[in-house]
Specification:
Blueprint lengths: L19 E8 L3 H12 L4 E10 L4 E12 L4 E7 L1 E2 L2 E2 L9 E6 L6 H9 L4 E7 L14
Antiparallel strand pairs: 1-7, 1-8, 2-3, 3-4, 4-7, 5-6
Length: 145
Amino acid sequence: MKARKPKHKEILKFEFDFDIKLFAISTTLRDYHLSYQIQKAFFLKLKREEDLEVNIHKKNLIANFSRFSCKDEIMQWEYHLLSNKYNGSLFIPELKIADYLFLIRGECCGEEVDILKQLKGITDVQAVKLVDVTVLKSRDNLIFD
């Protein structure tokens, strides 16, 4: 019987092009109230979508994170307001202080400062931070339909 040579395994790495602006928001507002305030500030029509389900392996549970979304067909932008916290679990674990995430898909070059100002101007929003998505270990959580 001949000894078999181990097969060489190739690992394919898939890199997603993150054309995303992510704003971490700390607030005491409920998701629907923050959604309403963002709609007023940005003239959007955010709709409640089905919760995002994430399997939290460490806790052996499925966490449901609320989501409000809309699309701007003219600018080709997608807006998503996501809860970052669910029963002690985090959608983006690196952002422990963020209660919500405001995500914009599409090119919004140079408008980040204006978006930050508008978000900070919402009553009961304590803090807002622009997050560099490329350094997040859990950035794959931001890939959803």
